[in-house]
Specification:
Largest sheet: 8 strands, mixed
Order of helices and strands: EEEHEHEHHHEEEHHHEEHEHEHEHHHE
Distance between the termini: 30 Å
Radius of gyration: 21 Å
Number of strands: 14
Number of helices: 14
Strand content: 15-25%
């Protein structure tokens, strides 16, 4: 089992390679924002197809099979590239055999996360359409009120439903292991997925039930003209609904264990691990690879979380947009892993990340300038003797 991390700008795009009975299998987790499919994901998938043909695993006209696609949550920087992939498969299908085939999709639609009745991921008609239209209409309003996180989430809802429509048209099974319902973490019981042992650490059912209750109350008030986007934001315990609902996976095969986190909150991951009896502050859960949540944002990470899930290898997927990864997150990691050799993998060179972070900082904090010595990622990482930093060559 190997994890391949593709450059995905401000988003995530991961390929999980493994074998089952000598048969190579492939899982794609997130597709990055606009442009990532064309620049990174499609070229790599085409390379893998050529390799499979050269090995005799598939014929020259056969597609590369992606056994499972997992969309960790609805947000453009995770879902856009998957939409582009589905569009590409559909377009090729009209002229010749597509280069790629997708067998299964794991995806939690917004409605399935807040629906108190069925939780059906593929429910697209009736009340669902009305809710989507209503939420889409208030996205600009939310941004005006200063609720940028909520505005981005609401704007992404339609993307999620477009993805479901694409998947249905292509005959891709949607959440088949969960009977078409929302993916929820109930316990530490593992799922056997093509020879992999996968445990869910999020989203937890208890958290989603609270989310559903709050959303139902807000929707009722909204229909009476008594609620605003700001009140919706306030009704959620986390300032980003998408991050609260991120699918968090603990993947194991033989002696390897990967923690794949989407944009989850570290405290929620810790609570889930403790509730399911997998880890505690006094009994950490060691992993080989820890995909750092939310592109290394300091809002989603802490020294306590890194200490509960000590890893050999930490993956930071982000190019500096929204100032992610934050320097503070690397400081948390240094505290948690003091004295231990730690591999830090970045999807972009530290200096390039700091260029973008500086631009982001100066947009928000004019006339205060970005100070590389005290705020830069590159200077901090260069001083950490226990960190082994890996990244692509400078652009």
């Amino acid at each position: 089992m190997e994890l391949e991390v593709l450059p995905a700008a401000k988003g995530d795009c991961l390929l999980l390679h493994h074998e089952e009975n000598g048969h190579k299998r492939l899982i794609l987790i997130d597709g990055g924002p606009a442009g990532v499919y064309k620049q990174s994901l499609k070229p790599r998938l085409l390379e893998l197809r050529k390799e499979r043909i050269a090995e005799g695993a598939i014929g020259k006209s056969d597609p590369l099979v992606i056994d499972l696609i997992i969309v960790s949550h609805i947000d453009d920087d995770h879902i856009n590239g998957i939409e582009a992939l589905f569009d590409d498969i559909a377009a090729q299908g009209g002229t010749h055999k597509p280069d790629f085939r997708v067998d299964r999709l794991w995806h939690n639609s917004f409605l399935s996360l807040v629906d108190t009745k069925s939780g059906d991921v593929a429910a697209l008609a009736g009340a669902g359409d009305a809710i989507i239209a209503s939420l889409g209409a208030i996205a600009p309003e939310a941004t005006k009120e200063g609720a940028e996180d909520l505005g981005m989430v609401l704007a992404s809802i339609a993307q999620g439903y477009n993805l479901l429509t694409q998947a249905k048209a292509l005959g891709i099974a949607i959440n088949p292991e969960f009977k078409g319902k929302a993916i929820e973490a109930h316990s530490a019981a593992p799922l056997d997925i093509d020879g992999l042992s996968i445990r869910l650490l999020g989203p937890r059912k208890t958290e989603l039930d609270a989310l559903r209750k709050d959303f139902a109350a807000w929707l009722k008030a909204r229909n009476k003209g008594q609620a605003t986007p700001a009140s919706l934001l306030a009704s959620f315990t986390d300032t980003s609904v998408a991050n609260l609902s991120s699918i968090v996976l603990l993947v194991e095969k033989e002696k390897k264990r990967f923690l794949l986190t989407g944009d989850a909150r570290g405290d929620k991951m810790m609570e889930a691990a403790a509730a399911f009896g997998l880890a505690s502050k006094s009994q950490p859960l060691s992993v080989n690879i820890f995909k750092v949540p939310h592109h290394g944002s300091d809002r989603n990470n802490s020294a306590e979380c890194f200490a509960m899930f000590p890893a050999e290898h930490y993956v930071f997927s982000g190019d500096g947009k929204h100032e992610n990864p934050d320097r503070e997150t690397f400081e948390y990691l240094a505290v948690a892993r003091a004295g231990a050799k730690t591999i830090v993998e970045l999807t972009y060179p530290p200096a390039d990340i700091d260029k973008v972070r500086a631009q982001e900082w100066e947009k928000k904090h004019k006339p205060r300038l970005f100070d590389p010595a005290t705020q830069g990622v590159a200077p901090y990482l260069s001083k950490q003797k226990n960190f082994v930093v890996r990244h692509p060559p400078p652009r």
